[in-house]
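>> received
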Amino acid sequence: MPEPAARETAGSVIALLEGAFMLGRAARSTAPVLAAGRAAAAIVRAALGGA
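>> returned
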């Protein structure tokens, strides 16, 4: 993956997970983190061309 795409993908995944951690703490639930994990995996798969 080219460096600019890798940087953008990594930034998106980090932002997604940080938001999920905050939501999870506020809700006292792991559900936002689990959902974010699934979304992060989909983002990375899409960035890699659906691999």
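>> The CA atoms of residues 10 and 49 lie 15 Å apart.
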